[in-house]
Design brief:
Blueprint lengths: L9 E6 L15 H17 L4 E4 L12 H11 L4 E4 L2 E2 L5 H14 L4 E6 L6 H4 L7 H17 L2 E4 L7 E5 L11 E5 L3 H10 L2 E5 L9 H13 L9 E9 L3 H22 L8 H7 L7 E3 L1 H15 L3 E5 L7 H23 L1
Parallel strand pairs: 1-2, 1-12, 2-3, 3-5, 4-5, 5-8, 8-9, 9-10, 10-11, 10-12
Antiparallel strand pairs: 6-7
Helix pairs in contact: 1-2, 1-11, 2-3, 3-5, 6-7, 10-11
Length: 352
């Protein structure tokens, strides 16, 4: 992708940097190797012409990244064009001032490619780690998001709230290259989250990891209604979709190769929450069916599913999580290559 080209429909990849054993070999990579592979994946995505690369935040030993801004800054120097976003920043337990200044710094380093995708996170280990109570789960996120948006708009800010010390004509430095850093809210499935994203007038990134995507149509409608009622233009109300993706030459091959890694991923993720169990092959076949949101198949199958969702949501961004379950890096590379060369051009052509 030549610098300066803007695709109407953006396609990218993201990682949560989970460190899981390969179910076929039993091998578990080190955090150092995982980090190196993430940077290499970002370089490949950039060279292949994809639009966005995202890195998530966790505070656990079975995840390699606790500071997306630091990792994305390293990636910034190894790439040229690709946008760099958190996926997600756990805003409930982050100081919004520190978060904004970190990403404004990233924006300068990357020549204007930084974005923030804020969410509440799937785990709660960051609450005791940073001295917050889970009783304030929703209130923390709302207050921190309000402050983050004001920080994005103002070089100097006076502000007071419930959970952090007040700001009195505070200088917010550095400032990003452009007027503001693009901000998104990650939404997992609750109407309240969709309403919040709409009222704030930021992008909404839907995490659609399985099931029938039609169940998210209501959230899109709620988001747009809340946004327009709050005075935001339809153009400002951008929608993205994120999902698990595995691509092979044929759909059957993709299912055969991905099944061990998919059940492995959900087994260790759910075990962390106290109820891990293995997904049967029959369950997996249903989860990967043509009408579902699990993107496992041939390039044509992936294209069809993305376009079906575009018919539903009218979204302008799709991010693929392509490295879950202890998947070896050579297979992650293949996923990115097929996404960039076989999937992305067909989707963009169809939507144009």
């Amino acid at each position: 992708m030549n610098q300066g080209i803007i695709n109407e429909f953006e396609i990218g990849v993201y990682t949560l940097a989970d460190i899981g054993p390969d179910p076929l070999t039993g091998n578990t990579v080190s955090a150092k190797q995982r980090m190196e592979e993430i940077i290499k994946a970002a370089q490949l995505a950039d060279k292949s012409g994809l639009d966005v690369f995202g890195v998530g935040e966790h505070h656990r030993l079975d995840y390699a990244v606790s500071s997306p801004a630091v990792v994305l800054a390293a990636i910034a120097y190894a790439t040229k064009n690709i946008k760099l976003t958190s996926t997600t920043s756990v805003l409930s337990t982050l100081d919004p001032v520190r978060l904004f200044e970190d990403f404004a710094t990233l924006d300068l380093i990357s020549n204007g490619r930084a974005e923030i995708l804020a969410g509440r996170g799937a785990f709660i280990e960051s609450f005791p780690l940073f001295g917050y109570s889970t009783k304030d789960y929703d209130d923390l996120f709302t207050e921190h998001m309000d402050l983050l948006i004001q920080l994005n708009k103002n070089e100097k800010l006076t502000w007071s709230g419930k959970f952090r010390p007040p700001l009195n004509n505070a200088e917010i430095s550095p400032r990003p290259i452009h007027d503001q850093i693009p901000i998104w809210i990650g939404v997992g499935g609750t109407p309240e989250s969709a309403v919040r994203a709409g009222r704030f007038g930021v992008g909404m990134a839907l995490a659609i990891l399985g099931g029938n995507p039609r169940r998210f149509k209501q959230l899109v409608d709620i988001y747009r209604q809340a946004g327009t009622e709050a005075g935001h233009s339809i153009e400002a109300l951008k929608i993205g979709v994120t999902g698990h993706v595995f691509i092979a030459e044929t759909t059957q091959q993709a299912k055969d190769e991905f099944y061990p890694y998919y059940w492995n991923y959900w087994y260790y993720v759910n075990r962390q929450r106290g109820f891990g169990r293995k997904i049967s092959r029959e369950e997996f076949e249903q989860m990967a069916g043509p009408e579902t949101a699990l993107f496992v198949g041939s390039p044509e199958q992936i294209v069809d599913k993305v376009l079906q969702q575009h018919e539903l949501f009218g979204h302008t961004r799709f991010l693929a999580q392509v490295d879950i379950g202890g998947l070896p890096f050579n297979r992650v590379v293949k996923n990115i290559e097929l996404l960039a060369s076989e999937v992305a051009p067909k989707i963009r052509k169809a939507i144009r």
